[in-house]
Amino acid sequence: MTAADDSQNESATTFSATHAAGQPDVVAELARQFGEAAFTPQTTLTAMPVIWVAREQLRDVLGFLRRVTGPFSMLFDLSAVDERLRTHRRGLPPSDFTVFYQLLSVERNADLMIKVALHERDLSLPSISDIFVNANWYEREVFDLFGIDFAGHPHLTRIMMPPTWTGHPLRKDYSARATEFDPYTLTVKGQEVEQEALRFDPAAWGMKREGEETEFMFLNLGPNHPSAHGAFRIVLQLDGEEVVDCVPDIGYHHRGAEKMAERQSWHSFIPYTDRIDYTGGVMNNLPYVLAVEKLAGITVTDRAKTIRVMMAEMFRINSHLLFLGTYLQDLGAMTPVFFTFTDRQKAYEVIEAITGFRMHPAWYRIGGTAHDLPKGWDKLVQGFVDWMPKRLAEYEKAMMDNAIVRDRTRFVAAFDTQQALDWGVTGPNLRATGLDFDLRKKRPYSGYENFDFEVPTAVNGDAFDRGMLRIEEMRQSVRILQQCIDHMPAGDYKADHPLTTPPPREKMLQHIETLITHFLQVSWGPVLPAAESMQMIEATKGINSYYLTSDGSTMSYRTRIRTPSFPHLQQIPAVMRGGFVPDLIAHLGSIDFVMADVDR
Amino acid sequence: MNWWTPQVEATLIAMVQAVVILLAVVVSGALLSMIERRLLALWQDRYGPNRVGPFGLLQIAADMLKIFFKEDWIPPFADRTFFVLAPAIAMASLLLSFMVIPITPGWGVADLNIGILFFFAMAGINVYAVLFAGWASGNKYALLGALRASAQTLSYEVFMGLAVMGIVAMTGSFNMRDIVNAQENVWFIVPQFFGFCTFVIAGIAVTHRHPFDQPEAEQELADGYHIEYSGMKWGMFFVGEYIGIVLISALLVTLFFGGWHGPLLPPIVWFLLKTVFFVILFVLLRAALPRPRYDKVMSFGWKVCLPLTLVNLLITGAMILLIDPGV
Q1: Which side of chain A, N or C, has fewer Cβ within a 10 Å radius?
Q2: What is the residue range of A356's domain?
Q3: Start and end of every NADH-quinone oxidoreductase subunit D domain (chain A) (predicted)?
Q4: What CA–CA distance (Å, rounded) separates A163 from A198?
Q5: ipTM for this model
């Protein structure tokens, strides 16, 4: 425990030294405004101030933070923890359920986490969806999975689970395994009930069935539609082909990854992360292992860091290629997708040779990677690096310069930086509005500070910019790959640390201590000290973060996975009102989302 | 043997010709399904169907077998009569149009004096196929597709007709044979270039081919008006679309590219070569272009194509009067 405490203090110092430099300390500002007694600070490994606030003051505090100079203008994440079984809570306010609000300030380049303690017999909070619009879905998610009520929420219904569901899955008293339930059955009658429950009722959403002169058509787009990019449903209120309003409906791809994290060892959860953003491959492992390494206090070797960066960028290109092909396909161009898939095949050949798998390598490990790079890896990667630029030029010339593509995408579904921040939009979609907020530059992790690359931005924030920007990002990723080839550091691919899982094999075969550790970690799993840690990374589609709570066990106490696609989908109605159906399709193509990333 | 008169002989020959042309058109329409996939594959860096038979040539047999044995499902919420009628109209109206196309000096089904008008009439009837299908399916996507189709076809047929009026004025006849004969020295593509441009565009629009495939727009309407169709009924829409391609290609050849005229090779070879060229062009367009937005397609039709055809007609008329004021 002492080791963990030390590193917690260390981390707190690093925070004030780096992120808050030159900016007034937000905790002090809050204390000035509301008085010292209003807050209970908590030391964590999250590299941001974490403070507990009383429920009555929550809205005032959040409202203040939104208005303060250097405002916290983005609600980055909002979720909850069932604390009833947590043993290591010394110094924290008593709480059965804790709801946390993570705010992000672009001006300060800093985060802040506000926590509110709730008693299990009074699970109610004021809604903040009027302060931060994107709180709407997050609050629905907390309501759905924890059963916490948000007073004043405009439409507090289930969002992940079917409307007919009973129970709140992320509560600790809700079983995680199928074997703990009665066998599942679905009768014809049951199916009809379920289907009826999904029937869209415009009145429930405050929608009119008729306008002044027209009767609206309500069109179910999805959950099974060629352009829905997975099991995504969006109900359109149409006047002719004009979208008067729309309601996205998610949850069809929900598989309870956060719940699974509470039943898997720290090590064996890694493959689950691959499947969060399934086009991102090992990129998904990165925030998870980085957060775990913070808990374990592992410093990773330079070689491991660079290998991780290289493979993550490989997957960024891979994901962006998939985006480009499907984006153009959604615009009706059927050919490009075959070309980008040819490129993706080239990428997969490299990925397969290095990791042994294609889509879901689950290749990063706590403390390093699964293997060292194979002999001849540099030639393989070089081949890909040489191949890509001319292909990218071709896509730009053949498609992005095409008059029809421009006509379909320019000024379509455009939003500005402020709107993007309000809705929690991150990644390329945020940068397309002109803000160069890229975590690889702003808060370098895993050695990104050593690489020379640019952060492309655009101006209009429309569907066209979102497409062009990603082509440019691929060029930058190719640059990073080239630097990895040229400057791959020598050394070990795994950290020499007792919690490195699995431990270096050479040592395991020599030392009885390491052999025992290996045995324990493989059979039982590594035991991580009790603490909270968090890592945000610039993933393929935006900022992806893992907020881990360890209770000093082999498994996570709570794993919160914040994915970029979730808020991106929530924003759709705000930009689509007044557009046409083909514009909606163009917008859906330009967001770059996968439902696995939305629903988790 | 006194019943064997020249009239009987002529009738028999005409009948045989009609049957041969009918079969050839249907077979080429069906074959196109496979040829299009192979051609697309060629441009898309992949193989396409190459497993069944040599070069995948028997793919069509496999597809036909599959389509014949598929469950022919009519949704319970559909309007049965019109639901069944729609694919029949789709295929029949386009097949009938082939009647007026003169293939060679000796081949052709009917030599109608209103030839070109007959085609427009059939194309007009063809709209009903889409309308009926969209309405009778009882599906919102189908309805939207049908709405798009009727609006698009109506707009584009207006200037499709006007586009060829220049030719009619120059030839002085609606008869297709007369039109072909008038091109013995100069193909009409030269004096009627703008007419050609607008006719091609309208032709693609009328067959609902990419980039004017708004009524089916897979990414938007998930196949539009034929979303509820399966089995052979769907197959008839499908083959109907390919027959449409062959028909428009044949019309382009007849109206603008001198029909069977050409040096050295026999007339039938010239006719086929030219037609195949345009068919390939249709497929290439599909491989190359994205889909414009529906309302842009409409405004393009009314604001660009229609004025262009009118100007073309005006100039043609003026030229005819200038060259031969006595007419």
Answers
A1: N
A2: 257-492+526-599
A3: 330-600
A4: 7
A5: 0.82
